[in-house]
Amino acid sequence: MTLAPALAPDVEKHRPGSPGLRRVNLALFAAGLTTFMSLYCTQALLPELSGAFGVSPARASLLVSLATGAVALAVIPVSSLSERYGRTRVMVASSVASALVGLLLPLCTTFGALAAVRAAQGVALAGVPAVAMAYLADEVHHASLGGAMGRYVAGTGIGGVLGRAVPGVVTDFGGWRWALAATALVALGFTLAFWALLPPSRCFRPARVDYRPLLAHLADPGLRRLYLIALVAMAGFVTVYNFLTYRLLAAPFHLPASVVSLIAVTNLAGSVASARAGVLADRHGRRAVLLAAGGLAAGGLLLTLPSALPPVALGLLVFTCGFFAVHAVASGWVGLRATRARAQASALYLSAYYLGSSVGGSLGGLAFERAHWTGTGLYVLALYAVAVLAVPGLDLSGRLVGKLRG
């Protein structure tokens, strides 16, 4: 049998209002900032990179997909290592390594080299998202877990804003190389803040590295539904942000690149929505909030279909809020449902999440090239329909309806 970590009683966990919980929230907020800033730093630059290297939109999107695909492959082994060697050690090593790899991006001279460094950066990044949810589930009292998870997701949202806005604005003045250099330096600063703020684990107990819990998690129908929701929701989200940029640069909008990059500011509203969704899930039940969030995302996407800027802007805002609420609730649900090997349960969720970003985002590029924004919108709507249909099989506790609750 797997030697799962023996957690200390809840009294040792960080409780609401404690100084320890405040440090956890700030540290994981910084972790979310540096992770998503690094992961999506090429997204706002895709049109610029298409022109610089003479590649199509679908091929240029590989600079996002390769990084997220590498994360999808790396999170499971990295999470298993954290069961043996500790959550904080793995997260700090991962964040520092990814920041250093990011400094190599502006030095690349070919599309192939840039793609290879992005893949390496994805592998280095994997330790933070792979372990963060398990760290929170281990260290934070259950009464505050939803809110803490929401704040971490909020950090990822603001990191997404900076990862798109910083390079998008800088590229108008200094080109894509200076844009990536500026982003890498800011990400390094957030990494150092994360390292300084992160409290050591108090409730973690090391366990033997064992992949058998992965099979147990995959055998759980409720966790499989949560993994499916992560995959399709993230696939739709990345598709929208990858290719809406191309649409807004072209007719009938003809917006400048620096303005288009600011669409990422909608992630700020998503960050607020994620934090609020976590609190609402703690109070009113995860199933209802998850269903409402999925419907909100689909409604927002419909608003982006007309060729008029006001509904597109409003639709993107609503869609983003819906996505972040879905992710905050579903990711927190995984930590509650898994009673052992939580890092591996969370890693499977994140593997599906980033696989959706990698594969789903590239497939979205094919939809965009063949059927423009209407085809892209229908593709994303189909993905969110799958997410919403997966929710009714889960009850308020996260257990399958009709099964024993834990």
TrEMBL record:
PROSITE patterns the UniProt entry points to: MFS
CDD domains the UniProt entry points to: MFS_NepI_like
UniProt keyword terms in alphabetical order: Cell membrane, Membrane, Transmembrane, Transmembrane helix, Transport
Entry similarity comment: Belongs to the major facilitator superfamily.
Domain Major facilitator superfamily (MFS) profile: 20-405
SUPFAM superfamilies: MFS general substrate transporter
Originating organism: Actinomadura parmotrematis
Pfam families documented for this protein: MFS_1
Membrane topology according to the record: Multi-pass membrane protein
The protein, known as: MFS transporter
Transmembrane stretches, start-end: 24-46, 58-78, 90-113, 178-198, 226-249, 255-276, 288-306, 312-336, 348-366, 378-396
Location(s) in or outside the cell: Cell membrane
Gene3D superfamilies to which the protein is assigned, alphabetical: MFS general substrate transporter like domains
